[in-house]
Design a protein that fits this description.
By secondary structure, this protein is α/β, with parallel strands linked by helices. 38% of the residues lie in helices and 19% in strands.
Length: 311
Amino acid sequence: MSAMPSANSGCRILAVTALYKQAPSESHTLSTFFKILTENPNLAGDFSLLVYDNSPERHEIAADFALDYVHDPANGGLATAYNYALARAEQTGCEWLLLLDQDTTLTSGFFSELVACASGLQSQDQVAAIVPKLMVRGIMQSPAEHFIDYLRHQFTGPLATFDQDFSGVPARRISAYNSGSTLRVSAVRSIGGFPADFWLDYLDHAVFHELATSGWKVYVLRAVLMHELAESDLNSRPLWRFRSALKAQSLFVKRAGNCSDRLLYRLWLLRSIRRLSADCVDPRVWRETARQALFFTGRESSAPVRPPAGN
């Protein structure tokens, strides 16, 4: 295993991949990451990699470029992994932090455009994030409009999404998936790092909201990546994970929205019940959604939902 670069080593982008119950060799992200940097040594000098493994068992991993492996069987989630990586980026003098899930297929075009964009934005320090477009099952899911903005016009239809050829800084605030997002280290630190309350779900929404609230901008790349959204099939998602997402979503609305937004959120949940009752085999999914819609006040505990033992 190669050691992480020392401070001022010239490496500008620290990539962090969070693994959970998946061997590195099974990760689309790591497989394509290794392949691209091996075949493009000119790019390898701009990157180092941190693999943060939340799996119960330890894995062996090696590469021909700067790499570090951290095993956290306690499963501190994404927020813990990303905050660890943020501190490492500061220690090693990396300007940017590239967040990666384990199931994103990377491309050399993405890496090349990212490096060029990061270089070009050195004099534009108001840009805090560089994001690609992510396709899930043939539909562009990221970037997307801010969830609060979506709630505010849910009865009139969504705002126009980004054209695949678009690149640049959008005029309105947006959110993006964690995976593929490259964040300016100083900007993330200025908002207090990655909020631990969003240990797994809605962490991306929370971070992009805080960046927008603080006046930071997002640059959208032309690059398009294929992404496998974990448990996108509701019937393959364990109940604890649905509860976690619902709890985190509610916490986000509580913190990012106002009283009217909380009412709009309850209406949106009620409108979701028919779809959930038709699509989900487990009736507890739509029943818990209904319960949240009826009783959500914004005063609920912020304690996250954790997986049961053995999951």
